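User: I've been going back and forth on whether these two constructs are worth ordering. Before I decide, could you fold them both?

Assistant: Sure. I'll take them in the order you sent them. The first construct and its structure tokens:
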Amino acid sequence: MQKIIRIGTRDSQLALWQANKVSKELAELGYESVLVPIKSTGDIVLDKPLYELGITGIFTKNLDIAMLNGDIDIAVHSLKDVPTSLPEGIVQAAVLKRGNYNDVIILKGNEEFFGEPEGLIATGSLRRRAMWLNRYPTHKVENLRGNVNTRLQKLEDSETWNGAVFAAAGLERLGIMPEGAIDLPWMISAPAQGAIMIAALEKDDYVLDACEQLNHHETKVCVGVEREFLRLLEGGCTAPIGALAYVDARTEEVNFKGVLLSKDGSKKIRVAKTAKLGSHKFLAKDCADYIINRGGKELMKDDEEAEAKIATVYSTKKLSELQKETLSSSIGVKDSDFIKMRFNRIPAKVMKTQHENVVITSQNGVEAILNSFTKDEINFKNIYCVGRRTKKLIENRIGKVTHVAKNALKLAEYIAKETEIKKVSYFCSDVRLDVLPTYLQAHEITVNEVEAYKTMINPVKMDADISGVLFYSPSGIESYLEENSTERVAFCIGETTATEARKHFNKVEVANMPDVESVLKLVNTYYSK
């Protein structure tokens, strides 16, 4: 029986349009598919381990998680929203033929304000803001967020805006391009703007073969150059960057133009180069080097220092540029990974005898087991775990879960009080909380610990100007304490992490939801008081 490809998509109107397009193209090739809308961040509870797989993008993260958990087979994205580094195990399976890559302005009145000093336009894009102010330095730009329909309605309701800037592709795909929309060819688009990308699991050959047939080679080449240019320039900084590549059919050349601006639009460094198609491997690097050699890094550094900061915080896990943009512009942010993980090679003899009762407290434990053994090689009778996401992963990849608890203590209490178990096998990290084994041993239950993966600390000594630290696990706190003091505010992803933080910090704040975006919102709220 042919596999039905489950297509994961955000549930916005534009995202559903794009997913339906992929579904139709797959159907034309004889593949059956079904759409699986994935709810927003607030509807998905994220456990610590999946963050260690490198999931970063605000608009792609939930789909990445659903794919890694086996809920969907592919994810459809606007490629400009996808981080330049994909999570471990996920690959770019295809890029569809590109749509309109231009930006357009939707006017409230006529075009006369272009030549007037008091123009007021709206956009949520840092790039569009900078490019507009570079061309019209006396104008003002106000923030505009939301999906396409929401932004159009906000423009309609505004009594002060002269217009708002949109990506042409989204308006065209939804069939809602207003009459009188003006193309902005001078505004270099965002890298990969107008392109639809399909992501899939690296190990799923059936899906990869299907998606490969949807790939548009010319588009793949062009967006590849643009995204590499972005990656080479970013360097951890949030900066207005535009990039556009296209193939000239007459000359068979890849034409590229890119731009880096200061956030206020007062400074701009442009580059334009060509390379023969097939010999374009270093085109992005050559263009990025051109920008850097003409003061690009200094421009970004000066820009960052010029902004008045009411506080600077440090994230103990790398953040994407989109995640950083969710913080108030008055809050500075630095980041690095304080925790790194490595799966151990579990000896084959571990699986030779049946494990009567197995305890797994994280999704990393599941992934570590599967890194050493196939499902058929795993010989577990009863599996006890922590967290519904861990339970789902186990049941998708290994087998039925006997009991799931909210945390390690609750699980230990259940095993000790509700079962007759006298011995458990605990698949864990070399660094973990002692709550579960200590409780079980106190109730005369033998705990056979199997070190399935290593949690390696990677601390960084922070500068004195850091007033708050973002923590995502007790291990992150342990790593932090190796090099740093406890005089700062600890912003914690959940109560387990907060419990550990309270042992050391006087000021501890806990996010409403256990995900990175909620921690960032917590930081915004704390410093706006």
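The second construct, handled the same way:
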Amino acid sequence: MTTTTPSTPEQRDDHRPSVHPGPSTPRWPRGARTIRYGGDYNPEQWPEAVWREDVALMRDAGVDLVSLGIFSWVLLEPRPGQYDFRGMDAVMDLLGDAGVDVDLGTPTAAPPAWLWDRYPDEHPVTRDGVVLGRGSRGLLSPSGPGYRAAAAAVTEQLAARYAGHPALAMWHVHNEYGAPISESYDVHSVRAFRAWLAERYGSVEALNAAWGTTFWGQRYADWAEVDAPRTAATTVNQAQRLDFARFTSDALLACYTAERDVIRQYTPDLAVTTNFMATNCPSLDYWKWAREVDVVANDHYLAAERTDNHVLLSMDADLTRSLAGGRPWMLMEHSTSAVNWQPRNLAKRPGELGRNSLAHLGRGADAVMFFQFRASRTGAEKFHSAMLPHAGADSRVWREVVGLGADLGRLAEVRDSRVPARVAVLWDWESSWAQDLEWRPSVDLRHRERTEAWYAALWRRGVTIDFRHPSHDLSAYDLVVAPASYLLRAQDGAALTRYVDGGGHLVVSFGSGLVDEHDAVHPGGFPGPLADVLGLRVEEFLPFRDGETGTLASGGTGRFWADDVVLEGAVPVDVFVDGRAAGQPAVTRNDRGTGSAWYVSTALDDGTLDAFVGDVLVAAGIAGDLLPEGVETVERVGEDTRWRFLFNHGDGAVELPDGLAAGTDVLGVLDDHGDVRVLPPGAAAVLASEV
């Protein structure tokens, strides 16, 4: 954070993401030059006799990297300051002798009982004032000095002991920050929040201006009067809640960087990371986090009951690659089959394990890992699938695990290649925090719903996208889509305008450009800094009733939302012909400079959205025909070779169009029928060709 004290909050806006996404000093796990393969290993749950069996099975499956020690704090430090590394020593040596590298975890996501007892004032507190107890997983207060000191101490003991161990390939700090503990309302967090605000704003007067505290008589005269935004009689100041979300992400990031910096004192050349949950951890601003890890790592679990979960998998993988700045990343966790924490934990169908894994690989992952190696017999995750299930090695899941290891070996040359993209989709965690607060114009104004809809439309045409923050340099992309830029800074709106003037093509969905970084409506109304580039202004929102639709001149329908639009240069492309928005533009286009900007004021039905996306791609000079239903494609490109990944998520065989069928079938999956190549149901294929 900056240490100067400018006169206005806008001048202190130093919390924006870097224009250069991705790790600042990218590294990779030391060791084998392969697609790394493995998973979490928790040998403490088993007698030592099982360990050797596990290591032998790892070698059979091609496992060369395991995450170790993530939940082992109480075993390593059974009493304060008393350490016992005998078990860890034995496992590290056993794995090292077998040629299995270790991603060594710091155990700080599972504080021991003695730590909870020692610091009762550091127990996390919910917004409703409930003090959380122990017996689960997760940290104490992220701002608790006792927790932070103890975490640093056990991390230093690990780093000092294993810095020179030959099995150590990288470091894994904590586990899934933000889950299950993100924001906390304990006394230490409140003090830290006040200090964070003082550094951000410099004075109480600047804070009052940013938060609009003249409304409802909320003005503050002293920092001591400022509390965390606890549950109150009605809606709490939304700018305050937005800042508390920013603070929470920063507080957790400080926990990570403290442990990372301890580790770097002992192993400065080894990669240090923590596992993200890219699209599924709403409390962390991963654009900021990505700059602090040496390699981006991600955990992904299917939403089992959603029939489009394979599309969401691709979206998550694309966001992870984007956080990595296009560089290779690690799939640190996913499941071989069912998980244990969803309402209905559906088992994966035969072949889905490998198809999911190769989909991540196709979108940039150079490591494929699972939770966990051997299924647990006890505890909360005993019904969670594993590489080695309760059924043992004589099981379908294990055979598929072994088969995947062999496939990854055949695909080793893919390592270090890149995933090209000509389309960017804007994604901003701060905007989502603001949009998800109370008292918005409609509960249907949801950032995640719109992002998924636009992503799926591009996915159905085989168009690969990068995610970008509105502040990033977008000049390399032919098309930029803003599906949910509810919060948009004036300077970022100006940059999008310059992007269009310079020849770019921009698509903006409804609900964008409504507020600034303090959750205040932009001067001049809606859509704020996008009004000029879109060539229109919005006089009033026209949200729909639940289930209501409006018919469009094109024959399609619009749902959820419409706007009372005044055209100021833009021309209508499609118009509502009935309903509450009759006569209003549903889609507009504004040509300016050498580019163009479209505005979509409603949620188009899938068919209409597909057709519109096709038209925009043509305007942007991007090929993107609709693919056969259920077929997915993505490319990775190396110096001399292009690999096209093809997936059939359907139950029937698919004849591949000519444009998708060329190349050497690396995995021997396709059925060749003369001049026609057929992708079998549920199959994943990789076609290699010269660049």
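Notes on the second construct follow. Residues 1-19 have pLDDT under 50 and may be disordered. Residues 36-414 form a domain with the TIM Barrel fold (CATH 3.20.20.80).
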